[in-house]
């Protein structure tokens, strides 16, 4: 399923010295006097005339289309008799794109095609694309894929990555639909931090059944793993001069669960907000144990936890990495 976008602002194409005076069926913005390729949109009478060399350079779709048209003769060699005058002439093969009377027929809306053309031809004018809204770039991404244009696709990717704040569901959908692997991880991590019940049926439908299952399974694995880690208080590494191992261990256990005035590791692990695991691990040296745990024991235990707990707790990163790997296969 593709996202349907609508323009949220009026497009202002660059001024071109090669622009013709518009008439009833010529594009007001994209009919160049020195254009070499003519096109008409499906179910529209508007004719476009642009520089064919640029479209061929930037678009595999137009490259194939023009190459196919080159193989067809522009005029028929057959003689054509007119009913009244009895004279002979030639008829142009329809749809070659070589003249205004024989434009290529394209399956796109005016908004879609003009967004595509603006991305192609903006570099020849003074108009900047930086002010374009997110809807413009979503449509450009779709048209870059449709017309097989890496230039337009990469341009859209750059602006969407740096200039827009997309919903992670939309971002994941676009990443899998238009093969943008670098968007998958940040979108997936954002979705992991949100509760599943916050997703609407429309968002789940946009995401797709398989990606949603991957998300749900990964969240379940992480939650189960963290719960097991939370309820298993790690052993204390006692110093040689520790006077009371039992009191020392109890003090650490209380700190692990969050007593003595601070949120403990266990509470952070089972918190529904799904705090990043490395942020949780960074708080281990600062566990607020009571005076019953000697500083040397606390230091030794914290050092051991940074090694042992790190290996155990970071298993969830394997779950995440495997999920992202699966999503990149779509």
What does this structure look like?
- With 330 residues, the protein is α/β, with parallel strands linked by helices.
- Among the domains are: 26-75 and 92-165, Potassium Channel Kv1.1, Chain A, CATH 3.30.710.10; 227-319, no CATH class.
- The protein has 14 helices and six strands.
- The strands form two sheets. A four-stranded mixed β-sheet has the order 1-3-2-6. Strands 4-5 form a two-stranded antiparallel ribbon.
- α1 crosses α2 and α4 (134-146) runs antiparallel to α5 (150-163).
- Mean pLDDT is 80; it is low at 1-23 and 73-94.
Characteristic key phrases:
single chain; 330 residues; four-stranded mixed beta sheet; two-stranded antiparallel ribbon; 49% helix; rod-shaped; BTB domain-containing protein
Helices, strands, pairings?
Elements: E1 26-31, E2 37-41, E3 47-50, H1 52-58, H2 60-70, E4 80-81, E5 88-89, E6 104-106, H3 110-121, H4 134-146, H5 150-163, H6 168-177, H7 184-193, H8 201-207, H9 209-231, H10 245-257, H11 265-270, H12 277-281, H13 295-313, H14 315-327
Helix pairs in contact: 1-2, 3-4, 4-5, 6-7, 6-8, 9-14
């Amino acid at each position: 399923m593709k996202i349907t976008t609508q323009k949220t602002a009026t497009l202002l194409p660059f001024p071109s010295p090669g622009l013709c005076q518009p008439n009833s069926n010529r594009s007001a913005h994209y009919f160049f006097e020195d254009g070499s390729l003519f096109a008409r949109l499906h179910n529209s009478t508007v004719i476009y005339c642009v520089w064919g060399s640029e479209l061929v350079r930037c678009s595999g779709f137009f490259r194939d289309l023009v190459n196919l048209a080159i193989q067809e003769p522009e005029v028929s060699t057959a003689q054509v008799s007119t009913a009244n005058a009895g004279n002979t002439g030639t008829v142009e093969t329809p749809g070659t794109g070589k003249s205004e009377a024989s434009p290529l027929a394209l399956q796109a809306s005016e908004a879609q095609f003009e967004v595509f053309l603006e991305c192609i031809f903006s570099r020849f004018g003074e108009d900047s694309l930086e002010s374009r809204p997110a809807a413009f770039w979503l449509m450009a991404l779709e048209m870059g894929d449709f017309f097989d244009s890496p230039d337009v696709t990469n341009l859209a990717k750059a602006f969407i990555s740096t200039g827009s704040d997309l919903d992670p569901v939309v971002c994941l959908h676009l990443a899998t639909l238009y093969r943008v692997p670098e968007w998958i991880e940040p979108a997936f991590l954002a979705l992991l931090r949100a509760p599943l019940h916050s997703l609407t049926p429309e968002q789940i439908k946009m995401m797709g059944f398989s990606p949603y299952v991957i998300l749900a399974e990964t969240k379940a694995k992480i939650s189960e793993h963290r719960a097991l880690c939370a309820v298993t208080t790690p052993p204390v590494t006692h110093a040689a001069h520790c006077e009371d191992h039992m009191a020392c261990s109890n003090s650490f256990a209380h700190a692990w669960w969050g007593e003595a005035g601070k949120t403990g590791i266990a509470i952070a692990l089972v918190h529904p907000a799904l705090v990043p695991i490395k942020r949780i691990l960074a708080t281990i040296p600062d566990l607020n144990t009571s005076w019953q745990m000697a500083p040397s024991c606390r230091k030794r235990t914290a050092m051991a936890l940074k090694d042992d707990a790190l290996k155990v707790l970071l298993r969830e990163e394997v779950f995440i990495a495997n999920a992202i790997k699966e999503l990149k296969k779509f």
